[in-house]
Specification:
mainly alpha
């Protein structure tokens, strides 16, 4: 539908939003980025009534891209207008959990690299003292 409308020179807001959602749900980073770009365009050019939805799905996209700070900033935008929005609250909680998990994984990787480097230096020191 998006492609046929684009060929005619006019894509409706609803069609663009539907296509952006499909892209954000993709497993491919390039598709997700393209979907987020469409949502950003819709946010600035589209109807004011749908801005909450655009912000929410931009946050989903940035979370999938592991840009957690941007995702939290966007979801906070939704919550500033609707503090009791359970969907937004749940997404914020999930983003915070993933950010923390990715932080632990990053620390473990750095710690593992550090251990390997220390072991290499110890081995080198032992080899040099034997000569």
């Amino acid at each position: 539908m998006f492609v046929s409308e684009a060929r005619k020179g006019f894509v409706t807001e609803k069609t663009k939003f539907t296509y952006a959602l499909c892209l954000v749900r993709s497993k491919l980073d390039g598709d997700i980025r393209k979907g987020v770009r469409f949502l950003e365009e819709l946010f600035t050019e589209g109807s004011a009534d749908a801005r909450r939805d655009y912000l929410y799905y931009m946050a989903v996209g940035f979370a999938k891209l592991k840009d957690y700070d941007k995702a939290i900033h966007l979801i906070d935008g939704v919550l500033s207008h609707e503090p009791a929005n359970h969907q937004a609250l749940n997404l914020k909680s999930e983003i915070q959990k993933r950010r923390q998990q990715d932080g632990f994984i990053g620390m473990a990787i750095v710690g593992g690299i550090g251990a390997v480097a220390v072991a290499g230096l110890v081995s080198l020191g032992i080899a040099l003292t034997r000569k």
